[in-house]
Design a protein that fits this description.
The complex is a heterodimer.
Chain A lengths: L4 E9 L2 E6 L2 E7 L1 H11 L4 E5 L4 H14 L7 E4 L5 H10 L3 E4 L1 H5 L2 H10 L4 E10 L2 E6 L4 E6 H11 L3 E6 L11 H10 L4 E4 L5 H9 L5 E4 L1 H4 L5 H10 L7
Parallel strand pairs in A: 1-4, 1-12, 4-5, 5-6, 6-7, 7-10, 10-11, 11-12
Antiparallel strand pairs in A: 1-2, 2-3, 7-8, 8-9
Helix pairs in contact in A: 1-2, 2-3, 6-7
Chain B lengths: L1 E4 L7 H9 L4 E4 L10 E4 L5 H11 L1 H10 L4 E4 L1 H4 L2 E4 L11 E7 L7 E6 L1 E2 L14 E6 L1 E5 L5 E6 L3 E8 L2 E4 L7 H12 L6 H5 L1
Parallel strand pairs in B: 1-2, 1-3, 3-4, 4-13, 5-6
Antiparallel strand pairs in B: 6-10, 7-9, 8-11, 11-12, 12-13
Classes of the chains: A alpha/beta, B alpha/beta.
């Protein structure tokens, strides 16, 4: 039986891992290669690297990091941040990524999902959605959470999967870095709407909240950052807890 | 020397990096003449059934690989590379596979498709590939299609994803695995090491 994936997320800026709160106030959390190796040893099921530095130099540094990690760590990697074209996807895959995540570029040009999945297969294409609640709906944001696009986040997830995304990485801007728990309602709505796997992201602070994302939010995987980077929990502890609560994990 | 077949459909570096990490001699080949001096073929698994077979057909590799398979020389197909060992796939109707194993590949009709994640193998027949890997090892899967062999005789391991399907098929020196050993951490490296041959390493040592 398939297991729930625990995925550490490394937000990388100019070669350093950082972590913010609600997409702001970033703190340095360490060297990406060291963190990646450490999480692999702890039993991480995948890794996500997001380049949050907008400069071309930051992008290049990021690809170097992925290249280096992929010689030593043999679990799947997703690379995102600043990927705008099929050529950007190819560079990330050639550096050692197994999947690429697109957010802003897919909102601006949904055809990128079609092109990317045609060239590399849909299993390679992750649609990252930064969603924020307004009233009783969620809207997709672009540019690192700075611009509201007017697109309904749930509808966008459905459309993105139909166009070629093989997976949805769903980030709640409201919950990001707060450790107050995932946005369960958002996660559940998207998970029930799309036929592809959904990775819940944003807000994990306790073990019980991770369980809730899977059991109540119906997420196929959970993304973790603050909870791991600042050493408050280990992946093994998280998996032990989930298993005790009846959630299947990989050992 | 292990030949990693490049069918111009995707990223082969992961497989190559894993073999390099295991200190195995390997090279990427895209034409029949480049197989000279190789004693093992690894057909990796990224891309689309039709496009991959089309490349093999046009490069002349299909005929050479079929002879290799019929001569029972060491061969490992990974993911799509395993599916290509069969007659055909629903992914591209009308395109013939390598046809070494009788059977078809079909798309999952329920659950989330593609299957993405770690799933376990139930061993139903002794396989050298699983040496040292315990009763129910976990591997990383990433696929929307699965193989349905005409008989059970080639099936060494099965996996449950809403339905039970073959995740390891073998006959003689010809093997196929539906998962990605090159992305399955210590267990995957151990499986590759088992396939390459050579002295057994403990999983703990490989993971360090």
């Amino acid at each position: 039986m398939i297991t729930v994936r625990i995925i550490p997320c490394l937000d990388v800026d100019e070669g350093r891992v950082v972590k913010g709160v609600k997409f702001k106030n970033f703190q340095t959390a360490g060297d990406p290669c060291e963190l990646a190796k450490g999480y692999n040893d702890q039993g991480a099921d995948e890794l996500v690297f997001l380049d949050i530095g907008a400069s071309p130099k930051s992008r290049k540094t990021m690809l170097d990091v992925v290249e280096k990690v992929s010689r030593q760590v043999f679990i799947p990697f997703t690379v995102g941040g600043g990927i705008r074209t099929v050529d950007d996807m190819r560079s990330a895959l050639n550096a050692g990524a197994d999947k690429v995540a697109v957010c802003t570029a897919a909102l601006q040009n949904p055809d990128l999902l079609v092109q990317g999945s045609r060239v590399f297969g849909r299993q390679c294409i992750v649609l990252s959605i930064d969603a924020k609640k307004d009233g009783n709906r969620w809207f997709a944001y672009s540019h690192g959470g700075r611009r509201q696009t007017g697109q309904d986040a749930v509808a966008w997830a459905k459309k993105g999967a139909a166009l070629g995304a093989g997976e949805i990485l769903l980030n709640s801007i409201d919950q990001d870095g707060t450790r107050q728990g995932y946005d369960l309602e958002l996660t559940c709505r998207v998970a029930e709407t799309v036929a592809v796997p959904v990775i819940a992201s944003g807000g994990a602070g306790t073990l019980n909240q991770i369980r809730d994302a899977v059991v109540l939010g119906k997420a196929d995987a959970v993304l973790l950052a603050s909870l791991l980077h600042f050493n408050s929990h280990t992946i093994a502890k998280i998996k032990e807890y989930l298993e005790k609560k009846g959630v299947r994990v990989r050992w | 020397m292990i030949a990693i077949v490049d069918y111009r459909a995707g990223n082969l570096r992961s497989v190559q990096k894993a073999l390099v990490f295991l200190k195995a001699d390997c090279r990427i080949i895209a034409r029949p003449e480049e197989l000279a001096g190789c004693d093992k073929i690894l057909l990796p698994g990224v891309g689309n059934f039709g496009a991959a077979m089309n490349y093999l057909n046009q490069s002349g590799l299909t005929a050479v690989i079929r002879d290799w398979l019929n001569a029972d020389k060491p061969f490992l197909g990974i993911c799509l590379g395993m599916q290509m060992l069969f007659d055909a796939s629903e992914e591209d109707r009308g395109m013939n596979g390598l046809g070494f194993f009788p059977g078809q590949c079909r798309e999952f009709k329920s659950g989330k498709v593609p299957q993405i994640g770690w799933n376990d193998i139930r061993s139903i027949k002794k396989s050298g590939l699983l040496t040292g890997l315990g009763k129910k090892p976990y591997f990383y899967f990433l696929h929307g299609f699965y193989a349905i062999p005409d008989g059970r005789s080639i099936v060494s391991g099965v996996t449950d994803y809403g339905l039970e399907y073959p995740s390891i098929v073998e006959r003689g020196n010809i093997s196929g695995v539906q998962f990605h050993p090159e992305k399955s951490g210590a267990a995957g490296l151990r499986l590759l090491r088992n396939w390459i041959g050579g002295f057994p390493l403990s999983i703990r040592r490989i993971s360090q």
